[in-house]
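Q: I'm writing up a methods section and want to include an example of the input and output format. Could you take the sequence below and give the corresponding predicted structure tokens, formatted cleanly so I can copy it straight into the document?
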Amino acid sequence: MSYSQQTSSSASGVHYFAEGWRLITRPGIKRYVVLPLLVNVLLMGSAFWWLFSKLGGWIPQMMAHVPDWLQWLSYLLWPITVISVVLVAGYLFSTITNLIAAPFCGLLAEQLEGQLTGKPLPDSGMVGLVKDVPRIMAREWRKLAYYLPRALVLFLLYFVPVVGQTVAPVLWFLFSAWMLAIQYCDYPFDNHKVSFADMRRALRQNKVHNLQFGALVSLFTLIPILNLVILPVAVCGATAMWVDRYRHQFVAH
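A: Here is the clean output for your methods example:
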């Protein structure tokens, strides 16, 4: 029985996130986890160390922009501001890390899919990886072009009184969850040359579950130590979701 036959099509994003933790230890897959894991440890570890060394100076400066009539809410706005800064920075760090690790993440998704389906993809391995690097990087820039204008609008909301301190952090968290679902699901989709637009349409069919998956990835990105291993976990969870939920729409049997 194949992996997709063992899993209910109604499985939630929480299920696939948990699957990611299980699948990174799967025999034959662990060696493909090493390279994206090393990239993530080096870049995310350094980035968060830098961020937390700067937060003590940034937060008072940001709180100074709170209108006088909202000062009585400072006890609530302070943690919201901290969480917002960490969320924004966490997604930016993830974006940079994923841009550098993209070829290794694509290879991990390819190898895992081959194991889960029993049908290895053609041109797999390091030769296929090197050949696909230009296309993979072009795809990463396509995701960045989708992300930047939307992120800019949300960033500008932070400067709107009241909205910037209340609504904007919630919208940013939801947007980050959606973008992380796109980021990690894109690896198996792209391995099959599914267009970026077609992938987004497919993900919108199960938007709530994909938001669950992306939200968990986003939250774990903020947790020290765990955020160092989240990249391969998310790739494996998204690949399991692809095999179970989307592969039959795009791959001829």
